[in-house]
């Protein structure tokens, strides 16, 4: 009986872990859900080309700090240049970021950010 309860708890914890990863802006998490409906239509403000390169857009968290916004990318808060913010609302009303894995020369690179309407 105890092992059945532990198994149920383990399944519930595993089911809850994916949304947490997505909210930390990890590459690939949540991309498939939003690609056809939303990401493939986003355009970069600077080049007017797609923000989305296969799997680099994903749901995330956003916050306002003093006079600028930050978004969570790969589990780290990153400052968002104002010219990277798209003036659209996501279908889920949440924050989304399109950016490469934040390593090496890509550290700090952001293609597009969509902010929730209430931020």
Describe this structure in words.
This protein is α+β, with helices and mostly antiparallel strands and 119 residues long. It has one domain. Helices cover 22% and strands 24% of the residues. It has helices at residues 2-23, 31-34, and strands at 57-60, 62-65, 68-73, 76-80, 85-86, 95-98, 112-114. A hairpin with a 2-residue loop joins β2 (62-65) and β3. The protein starts with a helix and ends in a 5-residue tail after the last strand. Residues 5-22 have low confidence and may be disordered.
Topology:
Elements: H1 2-23, H2 31-34, E1 57-60, E2 62-65, E3 68-73, E4 76-80, E5 85-86, E6 95-98, E7 112-114
Parallel strand pairs: 5-7
Antiparallel strand pairs: 1-6, 2-3, 3-4, 6-7
Short note summarizing the structure:
With 119 residues, the protein is of the alpha+beta class.
Q: Give me the number of helical elements.
A: 2
Tell me the domain tally: 1
Number of strands: 7
Rounded to the nearest angstrom, the radius of gyration is 16 Å
**Strand composition percent:** 15-25%
SSE order, one letter for each helix or strand: HHEEEEEEE
- The helical percent reads 10-25%
Largest sheet: 4 strands, mixed
Name the quaternary structure: single chain
- Dominant shape: globular
Summed over residues and divided by their number, the pLDDT gives a mean of 81
Compute the separation of the termini in Å: 47 Å
Uncertain stretches: 5-22
Question: What structural category arises from helix and sheet content?
Answer: alpha+beta
Spatial arrangement of strands, main beta sheet:
1-6-7-5
């Amino acid at each position: 009986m105890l092992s059945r309860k532990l198994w149920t708890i383990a399944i519930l914890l595993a089911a809850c872990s994916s949304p947490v990863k997505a909210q930390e802006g990890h590459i690939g998490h949540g991309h498939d859900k939003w690609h056809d409906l939303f990401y493939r239509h986003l355009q970069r403000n600077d080049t007017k080309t797609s923000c989305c390169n296969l799997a680099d857009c994903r749901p995330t968290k956003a916050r306002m700090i003093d006079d600028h916004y930050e978004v969570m990318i790969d589990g780290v808060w990153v400052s968002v240049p104002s010219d990277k913010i798209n003036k659209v609302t996501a279908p889920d009303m949440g924050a989304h970021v399109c950016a490469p894995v934040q390593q090496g020369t890509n550290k700090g690179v952001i293609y597009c950010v969509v902010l929730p309407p209430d931020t």
